[in-house]
């Protein structure tokens, strides 16, 4: 019997891995069910279909309305507004009379508004009031914000427990869900496409990730650290090696644009190319042509004390591996679950290690070829088919419960 399923994501404009997972899931489930995509804003449907290679023709998009912002000026005004937004969204979603509600919105504190609920957690978010911004407030406001923070924390935990099933996008995330929320989460790895390799690899090092300002969301991709490392490796420039950055850039965000412009200015005169909002065909072409893949999310922060800044899974790393592009990535977070250092790529602890592993692979084409083949093989367990099978299994269990 077909189900009425709602998939909730309030970050569609970021065009990240969580959004890809949302749309792949919507496409798959809409083949046999009535699926509603629940968003507050969304790029053009045709653009999303092209960008993520999905068919949304059977998916109904519901634009959730938000209440008007109040005129409060107190320190906790944003907390109060977010609470009103949640209440408004719950009312609108309940009106759809869903059988299953899938919350795939990063950091959401929304209680389950349907008969059955699945909370797909990308990481158990540390609330903004606890993320180091307290020092920016005047001392007279800190006590009030702390009080509101404790109240919101309890509400978030309450919302989290309203779902029958909680999933984690990696073992790293699952560990922190257990540690922070005291709940066991089922691992459902994010969707990674099999790109396919080219027989003619080029002297290209690739990095894929959003271009956000360093202090924007605590999950910065650290392109500037990779750029600085490559600029120092002048012998690679002379040998014809290039560094390519690809990722989404929200041009309506002044801080993100300023960061992108800084990267462009720093890279001027070097064999470095930045591709902002590149179409899917161009991204896949670069995956296939590239020989090495670099990744640095979480660099400079401790995974023990700042786990939210790490790469919680790393979709782009796996996609690069599926294209036979050897990963040389930071030794933290979900990267440790996808890359076996010395077997299908290398993990590094500092930028010197990144440079050393890169030079080793460049100097040894046979090793590079061997690791590329192993990388392609190990990427298969993160396919769309594997992801869809896990989602189907969870839904079947919910129907039987």
Notes on the protein architecture:
By secondary structure, the protein is of the alpha/beta class. It has two domains: 4-191 and 383-400, 3-Layer(aba) Sandwich (Rossmann fold), CATH 3.40.50; 204-380, 3-Layer(aba) Sandwich (Rossmann fold). It is 42% helix and 15% strand. The chain has helices spanning 17-29, 45-52, 77-94, 139-160, 171-181, 223-232, 234-238, 254-267, 280-289, 315-322, 335-338, 351-363, 365-378, 384-400, and strands at residues 4-8, 34-39, 60-63, 100-103, 116-121, 165-168, 186-187, 204-208, 242-247, 272-276, 292-295, 326-330, 346-348. Helix 8 (254-267) links the parallel strand 9 and strand 10 (272-276). Helix 1 (17-29) crosses helix 14 (384-400) and helix 6 (223-232) packs across helix 12. The chain is globular and about 65 Å long. The model is unreliable at 127-153 (pLDDT under 50).
CATH superfamily of the largest domain: Glycogen Phosphorylase B
Number of helices: 14
CATH architecture of the largest domain: 3-Layer(aba) Sandwich
Helical coverage, percent range: 40-55%
Mean pLDDT: 88
Number of domains: 2
CATH class of the largest domain: Alpha Beta
Strand order of the largest sheet: 3-2-1-4-5-6-7
Radius of gyration: 22 Å
What is the subunit arrangement here?
A: single chain
H-E string: EHEHEHEEHEHEEHHEHEHEHEHEHHH
What gross morphology would you assign?
globular
Main beta sheet strand tally, sense and closure: 7 strands, parallel
Low-confidence stretches: 127-153
**Total DSSP E strands:** 13
Classify the beta-strand content into a percent band. 5-15%
Q: What is the SS-derived class?
A: alpha/beta
| Ends apart, CA distance between termini | 15 Å
């Amino acid at each position: 019997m077909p189900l009425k399923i709602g998939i909730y994501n309030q970050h569609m404009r970021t065009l990240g891995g969580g959004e890809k997972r949302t749309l792949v899931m919507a496409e798959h489930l809409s083949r046999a069910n009535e699926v509603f995509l629940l968003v507050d804003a969304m790029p053009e449907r045709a653009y999303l279909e092209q960008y993520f290679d999905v068919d949304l023709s059977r998916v109904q998009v519901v634009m959730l309305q938000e209440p008007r912002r109040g005129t409060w000026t107190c320190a906790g005004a944003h907390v109060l507004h977010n609470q009103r937004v949640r209440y408004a969204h719950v009312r609108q979603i309940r009106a759809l009379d869903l059988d299953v509600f899938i919350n795939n919105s990063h950091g959401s504190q929304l209680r389950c508004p349907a008969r059955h609920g699945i909370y797909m957690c990308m990481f158990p978010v540390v609330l903004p009031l606890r993320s180091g911004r307290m020092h920016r407030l005047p001392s007279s406001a800190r006590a009030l914000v702390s009080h509101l923070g404790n109240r919101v924390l309890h509400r978030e935990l309450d919302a989290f427990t309203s779902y029958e099933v909680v999933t984690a996008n990696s073992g790293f995330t699952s560990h922190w869900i257990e540690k922070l929320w005291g709940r066991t989460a089922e691992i459902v790895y994010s969707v990674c496409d099999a790109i396919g390799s080219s027989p003619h690899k080029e002297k290209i090092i690739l990095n894929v990730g959003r271009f956000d300002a360093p202090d924007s969301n605590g999950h910065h991709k650290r392109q500037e650290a990779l750029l600085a490392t490559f600029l120092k490796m002048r012998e690679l420039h002379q040998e014809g090696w290039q560094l390519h950055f690809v990722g989404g850039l929200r041009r309506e965000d002044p801080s993100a644009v300023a960061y992108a412009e800084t990267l462009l200015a720093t890279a001027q005169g070097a064999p470095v190319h930045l591709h902002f909002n590149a179409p899917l065909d161009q991204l896949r072409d670069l995956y296939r042509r590239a020989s090495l893949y670099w990744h640095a999310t979480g660099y400079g922060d401790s995974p023990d004390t700042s786990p939210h800044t790490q790469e919680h899974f790393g979709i782009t790393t796996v996609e690069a591996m599926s294209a036979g592009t050897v990963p040389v990535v930071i030794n933290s977070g979900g990267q440790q679950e996808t890359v076996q250092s010395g077997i299908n790529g290398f993990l590094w602890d500092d930028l010197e290690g990144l440079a050393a592993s890169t030079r080793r692979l460049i100097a040894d084409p046979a090793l590079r070829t061997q690791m590329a083949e192993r990388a392609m093989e190990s990427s298969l367990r993160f396919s769309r088919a594997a992801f869809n099978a896990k989602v189907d299994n969870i839904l079947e269990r919910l129907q039987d419960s």
